[in-house]
Design a protein that fits this description.
By secondary structure, this protein is α/β, with parallel strands linked by helices. The protein contains 47 helices and 15 strands. The chain has a 5-stranded parallel sheet with strand order 9-10-11-8-12, with helices on both faces. A 4-stranded mixed sheet has the order 3-2-1-7. A hairpin with a 5-residue loop joins strand 14 and strand 15.
Length: 965
């Protein structure tokens, strides 16, 4: 149970979101005094001074009685352990049994200071934003009088203002000059003697191109200081005044944000090779060519396993200081043309690395390339394109005319048309004997080579001077310190055929492979059959049909033999592994007839089971209307723990592997292909990853149609119709949903048809067809209830409630929405309940119940922050902003509604952003900025007319008409 003591505003105590009654003023003052010092013993005398300015003679006894009363109230509320503890020295509030918002505020401020010291304005701003969100009112400890509480409130108010100031400074560092001008104007008027606020206001105005206003703000500040305190501006303001006059104001420390948010400094290079020898001439040539930036393009070519990537990484790491704006890296997987990376997908990854949020990544490949080139213009970034397939793949990823950037490419082929006469073209030869012996010695130990020089030279010869083969042989020797080199050379010599001797690597791989335990050999062949870029231990468990611990032993054996690379931990805390393409090709050579396809089908079955389990944990069911053709299977129940415990985080960590699995399934198991695309839809929806959503479901639709699976076709059409709805493409959305509904009806699947109908009802509501929306929702609710589908039933009831709200019947709407909330609660998953709670809170706000509504919106916000649901966060902040507007708190309304607007922009969904426009315009008007309100409404209206969102359009037009002329 979660007990929260909130002091940043009026004192409030809640248990699992339910407010507790504390009793009389004495109890409240005692608890507040302890909460201010949570975790520390407060002497009885000090407590008495807080509870009474003039403590009575019976203060000790009264405090004991009050503490006992508080403990009884907590026990009656169901709290298993009381947070108020009596000690010999006084009283203590145990923070292990109660959260205190003041402590959270201090922790976030401290973390923000660390981010500021580390020159991370984006991290600092995010932390301060969370800290300021803890404040429910501008004044802490509201309603508590007395010297101690008033002093504490003053201190906290000062800390809050410091936070606001630092957050605005971070905004300026991130290039958000125009966005903060209005807020800074209000703050400087409210705090005329805070010179730092004046400085920030002037900087914002100047950098927003409003130089005259910046000078006027400086003049006004000078007058206020003289009139209020008889002071002249300090040296920093005077220096800024001179800089504005001379147009020498320094630029922001960060470039202005791109369309996806603040630009980041990517640092994507994998670790440099730990054992590197030779290649000095090539290394120096590349360093010289790349060092100046200037649009340099260098190419490293050579045979498979020759050490191209090792050299490129060594050079790139050595040049990091020359490219302070970051380093981008991608493995283009060019060794296998059928699995080569799609430049459009690579561009999406690069854009995310540069700070463009996933939803803001353009869907069109050409637009992605244009945005990529724009973001790199004026920056010094090194781009490493490893393992390129051909010239076309590389050209799509070049930064254009960005003079400060440089590109380093590795490829097996020369790519002559890319840089025919450039000095940065390097072709790597095989290592000479001395370098090869040096590499082998670094891995296996120089002393062992010195003890058996002839055998060492024979090993080098048999490895063909190929670094990959030498590394594998060296790892084998290092793992067997008692084994003579001569014996290994004899074993390697037995494998000498012309191809093995010339190739080198196959002989080395075969030696390493034969030395593996049987289960590791089986695992290598099975993993080689899969297309994913990397994988976690559960995938290995599925390959081996074994428990994860058993699979981890085999993974360790492969990693120790350098046949797998440990890529690090993912966002869900899982270790991820990566297989070199040469090792993958070798493993596929060894795979018996039908073995690879059987492994792929088994792993896909596990994929479908795990993603369904994640969807059940998140939404209470795996997919509405979905007939299960792929049998549920996992190698061990332990692998279900991840998707059950953290479905969004787990699938988010597996997202790239999921996309690869869907593509492979299209070839080996079309049924699993569309089922996996359907079950994973929730991840793409929550993350507003519209490009990924479209890719997997179009693949699933093609797979279903290829085998004549009507259920799969219907399911994918409904999923893609929902996707088009999120893109505000109403016509295609309605066509796809109607087609899916008709297919389900033709199959006699009323459940699937009802799900399509529920989505169509959303379109009806959005476009003002309320009677049709009501018909669909009532029909769907009955079908879902009969099927025992609480998820669908709750959403259909929610649709009815939304229509009632739109028609101005909030009492009736609240009854229906509370029923939807109860049904969603019975479903057992948190996310559907949040969807209903958001609308219950909206109805409560409409009915003039702000406290209940605010509690609901805050609960929704807390949940959606944890899941990354941008649309849900925006909706919660819109609700909180409207409540602040109703209460006359324009500053708080602006803060919440601007945050909602930003979340809508990041979601990539125009409608989500448009929903914040009308209340944000009212907040701007309330704060005295009518021109900004008008501009916002006119801009949003244009978009809504294109979308044909009639009810929203009517609200926006009404708000615009109410603005003063």
């Amino acid at each position: 149970m979660a007990l929260l003591l909130s002091l940043l505003g009026p004192l409030r105590v809640t248990l699992d979101g339910r407010e507790l009654e504390l009793g009389g003023p004495r109890n409240r003052r005692l608890l507040a005094a302890l909460a201010l010092e949570a975790g520390r013993v407060v002497p009885t005398a000090g407590l008495a001074q807080a509870v009474w300015d003039d403590p009575p003679a019976t203060a000790r006894e009264q405090l004991q009685n009050a503490a006992g009363a508080l403990r009884r109230r907590f026990a009656e509320a169901g709290l298993p352990a009381a947070p108020v503890v009596r000690t010999e020295a006084g009283f203590l509030l145990d923070p292990g049994h109660a959260a205190v918002d003041v402590r959270d505020f201090a922790r976030l401020r401290s973390a923000a200071k660390a981010a500021e010291a580390a020159d991370d304005p984006a991290g600092c701003r995010a932390l301060l934003g969370r800290a300021l969100e803890l404040w429910r009112a501008p004044v802490a400890l509201g309603g508590l009088r007395g010297r101690i509480f008033e002093a504490a409130a003053d201190r906290l108010a000062q800390e809050r203002l410091d936070c606001v100031e630092t957050a605005l400074a971070a905004d300026l560092d991130l290039g958000r000059h125009a966005e903060v001008c209005a807020e800074l104007a209000a703050l400087t008027a409210e705090h005329p003697l805070r010179e730092r606020l004046v400085e920030l206001h002037v900087l914002a105005l100047y950098r927003a191109g409003r130089r005259a206003e910046a000078l006027a703000a400086l003049a006004a500040a000078r007058r206020r200081l003289a009139e209020s305190a008889g002071l002249d501006p300090g040296p920093q303001l005077r220096a800024l005044h001179a800089a504005v006059l001379a147009d020498t104001v320094p630029p922001p420390r960060r470039p202005a944000p791109g369309p996806g948010g603040p630009q980041r400094t990517p640092a994507q290079l994998p670790a440099p090779p730990d054992a590197f020898v030779g290649r000095r001439d090539e290394e120096e040539l590349l360093r010289r060519a790349l060092r100046g930036g200037g649009g340099a393009l260098c190419l490293v070519t050579g045979a498979a396993g020759i050490g191209k990537t090792a050299l490129a990484l060594r050079v790139a790491h050595g040049l990091r200081g020359e490219f302070p704006d970051g380093q981008l890296y991608v493995d283009l997987r060019g060794a296998d043309r059928t699995a080569a990376a799609d430049p459009a997908e690579v561009l999406a990854g690069f854009l995310r690395g540069l700070g463009v949020d996933g939803p803001a990544v353009p869907a069109d490949a050409g637009e992605r390339a244009a945005l990529y080139r724009s973001l790199l213009a004026g920056r010094r970034v090194l781009v490493l394109l490893d393992n390129a397939a051909d010239e076309a793949q590389v050209r799509a990823l070049l930064p254009g005319a960005a003079a400060g950037c440089a590109v380093l490419v590795t490829a097996r082929h020369r790519l002559a048309g890319l840089c025919p006469d450039r000095p940065g073209a390097v072709r790597l030869p095989l290592l000479d004997e001395a370098s090869a012996l040096g590499l082998l010695g670094r891995i296996a130990g120089a002393g062992r080579l010195a003890a058996e020089p002839q055998a060492a030279r024979e090993l080098v010869r048999l490895c063909g001077g190929l670094p990959l083969a030498l590394r594998i042989v060296g790892a084998d020797l290092a793992a067997l310190p008692h084994r003579e080199l001569a014996r290994l050379a004899t074993r390697l010599g037995d494998e000498r055929s012309r191809l093995d001797v010339l190739d080198g690597v196959r002989a080395g791989l075969r030696i390493g492979y034969r030395a593996l335990p049987a289960e590791a050999r089986t695992l290598l062949r099975g993993l080689a059959s899969l297309d994913g870029p990397d994988f976690a231990a559960w995938t290995a468990a599925a390959v081996l049909e074994a428990a994860p611990e058993y699979a981890e032993d085999a993974l360790d054996a492969l990693a120790a033999a350098h046949l797998l690379e440990v890529a690090g931990r993912d966002g869900a805390g899982q270790l991820r592994y990566r297989m070199h393409d040469l090792v993958r090709a070798f493993g596929r050579e060894l795979t018996g007839p039908g073995e690879g396809a059987a492994v792929a089908r088994r792993v896909l079955s596990c994929w479908v089971t795990l993603v369904r389990e994640g969807r059940r944990a998140h939404q209470g069911l795996d997919y509405p209307g979905l007939a299960h053709r792929t049998a549920a299977w996992v190698p061990d129940p332990a692998v279900l723990a991840g998707p059950r415990a953290e479905p969004v985080r787990w699938l988010g960590a597996e997202c790239e592997a999921l996309v690869a699995a869907v593509r492979q399934a299209a070839r080996v198991d079309p049924y699993a292909c569309w089922e996996l695309a359907a079950a994973g839809e929730y991840l793409f929806d929550l993350r507003s990853d519209l490009a990924g959503w479209q890719a997997v479901q179009e693949q699933g639709l093609a797979a279903a149609r290829a085998v004549g699976d009507v259920t799969g076709e219907a399911t994918m059409l409904v999923g893609l119709g929902r996707h088009r709805t999120c893109r505000e493409e109403w016509g295609p959305a309605r066509a796809m949903l109607t087609a899916g509904e008709a297919l389900f009806e033709g199959l006699g699947d009323a459940h699937g048809a009802a799900y399509a109908g529920w989505l169509l009802s959303y379109l009806d509501r959005t476009q003002g067809r309320l009677d049709e929306a009501v018909r669909r929702c009532r029909s769907g609710a009955a079908v879902f209830e009969a099927a025992g589908d609480l998820y669908g039933q709750a959403h259909s009831l929610r649709g009815l409630g939304q229509v009632l709200l739109a028609r101005g019947e909030p009492e009736a709407a609240l009854r229906v929405l509370r029923e939807a909330l109860a049904v969603a609660g019975a479903n057992g998953a948190a996310w559907p309940r949040m969807c209903m709670l958001r609308w219950v809170a909206d109805a409560q706000r409409t009915l003039g119940r702000p406290a209940e509504a605010a509690a609901g919106f805050r609960e929704v916000l807390a949940h959606t922050l944890g899941s990354g649901d941008l649309a849900g966060q925006s909706a919660a902040r819109i609700g909180l902003g409207r409540i602040a507007l109703d209460a006359g708190d324009a500053a708080e309304a602006l803060r919440q509604l601007r945050a909602a607007d930003e979340l809508g922009r990041r979601s990539g969904q125009s409608l989500v952003r448009a929903l914040a426009a009308e209340p944000l315009a009212r907040a701007l008007l309330a704060s005295g900025d009518a021109p900004a309100a008008r501009a916002l409404l006119e801009e949003t209206l244009a978009g809504c007319r294109r979308m044909e969102a009639r009810p929203l359009l009517a609200r926006l037009e009404s708000a615009l008409a109410e603005l003063p002329a």
